[in-house]
Amino acid sequence: MHLARFHAEPAIFVAPGRVNLIGEHTDYAEGFVMPVAINFATLAAISPRSDGKIVIWAENYSEEKTFDAAALPAKGSKHWSDYPMGVVAILTGEGHKIPGFSLSLWGDVPLGSGLSSSAALEVVTALAVLSLIDASYPGPVLARLCQRVENEFVGANCGIMDQFISANGKENHALLLDCRDLSFRLAPIPANVALVIANTMVKHSIAGGDYKTRRAESEAACAIINDHRGGVPFLRDATLEDLAKWGHEMEPKSYLRAKHVISEDLRTVAASEALLKGDMAEVGRLMGEAHTSYSKDFEGSCAEADLMVELANELPGLIGARLTGGGFGGCTINLVEQDKAKAFAEELGKRYEAKTGIKPEIHICHASGGAHRLS
Ligand code: GAF
Question: Residue of the nearest CA to atom 3 in ligand 1?
Answer without folding.
Answer: 158
